[in-house]
């Protein structure tokens, strides 16, 4: 049976950290007035932590914007999601770790106002970003909808991230982005490639101009572009995806042909992966399903 998920990807400039939350509720409400069927609203990287400095000054501003994971900002965002009755992915925020770390952390809240999942960026854009790297891949269950995985901006350049999320059962990968550089062109290719080789939806939502390059994109599990916001202008990409398409594509094959997740059989020998000092075990290759996720 179809499992429709109406989503809204919001391409917008970052909000100044000092007054972001005061303005954000109105921003989300405006999106819902335009697209009242939305069940999941997603925003760009660092949407609530806009800063205008460079170098050490920028790092200090980002640290000033950081809060503990379960601090007042998280409480307010949870209350907003609960009041609106939607799944809310407000982009990423600066998180202050238990030992003074600075993490770039994606959040998602449930329609009941609960923090349903969080993910710390594993691959900060070095040497330009000051964040401490996260150490775990993360998926979150959206009750009665599906399973969402998280990657943040530069994470998309590392195929290990989306591959692990798909293996963990993600059906759609949310990729909040704050790309201000010309390589957004390559990121659009990567969004499609990551969707194709893992047979998942990829939602890459970038910051709007004048700060960001825009070009947000929604890709289906066969790599087809389902929607796009070309250029740096502000806008909302609203689309209803059917998460059952992931199972169909894996069952029938991409373009009716390729079934990568069925490549190995239990009779195959493990494949060494020297780069990782590990291996592919055939009996662990397929993505997790149901209660096994």
Number-wise, the strands total 15
Helix-strand category: alpha/beta
Strand order in the largest sheet: 7-8-9-10-11-12
Using the CA coordinates, give the radius of gyration: 19 Å
**What fraction strand?**
25-35%
Second-tier CATH architecture: 4-Layer Sandwich
**Oligomeric organization of the protein chains:** single chain
Whole-number average pLDDT? 95
**What is the CATH homologous superfamily assignment?**
Carbon-nitrogen hydrolase
In angstroms, what separates the terminal alpha carbons? 20 Å
Provide the fold topology.
Elements: E1 4-11, H1 20-34, E2 40-42, H2 55-65, H3 72-84, E3 87-89, E4 92-96, E5 102-109, E6 115-120, E7 139-142, E8 146-150, H4 159-167, E9 172-177, H5 184-198, E10 201-206, E11 216-219, E12 225-229, E13 235-242, H6 244-252, E14 271-273, E15 278-280
Helix pairs in contact: 4-5
Describe the structure.
The protein is 25% helix and 26% strand. It is α/β, with parallel strands linked by helices and 293 residues long. It has one domain (4-262): 4-Layer Sandwich (Nitrilase/N-carbamoyl-D-aminoacid amidohydrolase). A hairpin with a 5-residue loop joins strand 4 and strand 5 (102-109). Helix 4 packs parallel to helix 5. It is globular.
């Amino acid at each position: 049976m179809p499992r429709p998920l109406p989503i809204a990807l919001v391409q917008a400039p970052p909000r100044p950290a000092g007054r972001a939350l005061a303005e954000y509720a109105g921003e989300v409400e405006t999106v819902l007035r335009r697209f009242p069927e939305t069940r999941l609203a997603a925003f760009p990287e660092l949407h609530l932590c806009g800063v205008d400095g460079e170098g050490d000054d920028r790092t200090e501003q980002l640290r000033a914007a950081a809060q503990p994971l379960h601090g007042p900002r998280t409480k307010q965002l949870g209350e907003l999601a609960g009041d609106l009755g939607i799944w809310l992915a407000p982009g990423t925020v600066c998180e202050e770790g238990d030992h003074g770390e600075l993490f770039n952390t994606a959040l998602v809240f449930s329609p009941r106002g609960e923090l349903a999942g969080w993910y710390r960026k594993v691959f900060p854009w070095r040497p330009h970003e000051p964040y401490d790297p996260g150490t775990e891949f993360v998926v979150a269950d959206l009750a009665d909808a599906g399973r969402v995985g998280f990657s943040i901006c530069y994470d998309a350049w590392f195929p290990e991230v989306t591959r692990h999320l798909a293996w963990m059962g993600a059906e759609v990968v949310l990729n909040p982005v704050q790309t201000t550089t010309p390589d957004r062109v390559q990121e659009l290719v990567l969004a499609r490639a990551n969707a194709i080789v893992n047979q998942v939806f990829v939602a890459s939502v970038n910051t709007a101009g004048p700060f960001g390059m825009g070009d947000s994109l929604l890709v289906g599990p066969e790599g087809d572009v389902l929607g796009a916001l070309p250029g740096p202008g502000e806008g909302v990409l609203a689309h209803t995806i059917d998460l059952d398409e992931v199972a169909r594509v894996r069952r029938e094959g991409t373009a009716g042909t390729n079934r990568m997740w069925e490549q190995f059989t239990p009779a195959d020998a493990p494949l060494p992966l020297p780069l990782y000092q590990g291996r592919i075990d055939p009996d662990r290759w397929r993505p997790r399903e149901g209660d096994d996720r």
